[in-house]
């Protein structure tokens, strides 16, 4: 068995076109997931009756089941739900015109929100109780203390977890290939099918994932240094 090194380079260049979609399916779920996670964190901090058990179940379910299952559930159930609601309301919606990547992004957003909510919770637990008391001392309400003091600092303390999530979701996008989304891994399969050089195509894909992961970790390291310097300057 011999490796076609020339085809690795050829596949590498062809796979570069899949990077934007892969990054889109990585960044958007983390952004949307952060918004959902903040809502979940508020519910759990306020211990809102009726909503708190739902938020706890949501986090438990999406952290305890694989992301590939979330994608398949959303991919299958969402068109059925949309068609039902459209029929009930009287709107005309063609679910087959909705990009499959949109369903993947929705599914991964739910997945990300569960993990981010736990990361925020760990960040909040790392904050000294004196921070909350200081907020109250200067006249901040509970809600203002959460928004201005607790959440920003919890994001800082949870930054390493967020970096791991970013890299993890970059790799998780590979499972979108099961629903024919042409991200890096899916594109690699298509490229390899032209001459059955699957090993070479997957090596090229691995190199791209590796390079992107290094860039993410490098950017996070710079961000952490800047935040640390800023906190040190105002402490």
UniProtKB/TrEMBL annotation:
Highest taxon in the source lineage: Bacteria
Membrane topology annotation: Multi-pass membrane protein
Keywords of the record: Membrane, Stress response, Transmembrane, Transmembrane helix, Transport
Transmembrane segments: 21-43, 67-86, 98-117, 123-143, 155-181, 201-223
GO terms under biological process: amino acid transport; transmembrane transport
Ranges for domain ABC transmembrane type-1: 15-220
Any single GO CC term annotated in Swiss-Prot or TrEMBL for this entry: plasma membrane
InterPro entries: ArtM/GltK/GlnP/TcyL/YhdX-like, MetI-like, MetI-like_sf
Subcellular location: Cell membrane; Membrane
Main location, first listed in the record: membrane
Family listed: Belongs to the binding-protein-dependent transport system permease family.
Protein name: Amino acid ABC transporter permease
Originating gene: tcyM
């Amino acid at each position: 068995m011999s490796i076609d090194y020339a085809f690795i380079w050829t596949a590498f260049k062809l796979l570069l076109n899949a990077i934007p979609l892969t990054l889109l399916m990585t960044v958007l779920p983390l952004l949307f997931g952060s918004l959902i996670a903040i809502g979940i964190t508020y519910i759990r901090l306020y211990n809102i009756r009726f909503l708190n058990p739902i938020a706890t179940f949501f986090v438990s379910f999406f952290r305890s089941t694989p992301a590939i299952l979330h994608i398949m559930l959303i991919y299958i159930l969402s068109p059925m739900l949309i068609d039902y609601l459209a029929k009930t309301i009287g709107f005309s919606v063609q679910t087959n015109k909705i990009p499959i990547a949109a369903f993947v992004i929705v599914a991964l957003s739910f997945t990300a929100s569960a993990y981010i909510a736990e990361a925020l919770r760990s960040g909040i637990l790392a904050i000294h109780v004196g921070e909350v008391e200081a907020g109250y001392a200067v006249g901040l309400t509970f809600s203002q203390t959460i928004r201005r003091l607790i959440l920003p600092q919890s994001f800082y303390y949870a930054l390493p977890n967020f970096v791991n999530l970013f890299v993890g979701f970059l790799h998780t996008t590979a499972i979108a290939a099961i629903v024919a989304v042409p991200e890096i891994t899916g594109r690699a399969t298509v490229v390899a099918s032209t001459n059955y050089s699957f090993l070479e195509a997957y090596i090229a894909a691995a190199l791209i994932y590796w390079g992107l992961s290094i860039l993410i970790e490098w950017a996070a390291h710079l961000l952490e240094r800047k935040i640390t310097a800023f906190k040190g300057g105002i402490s």
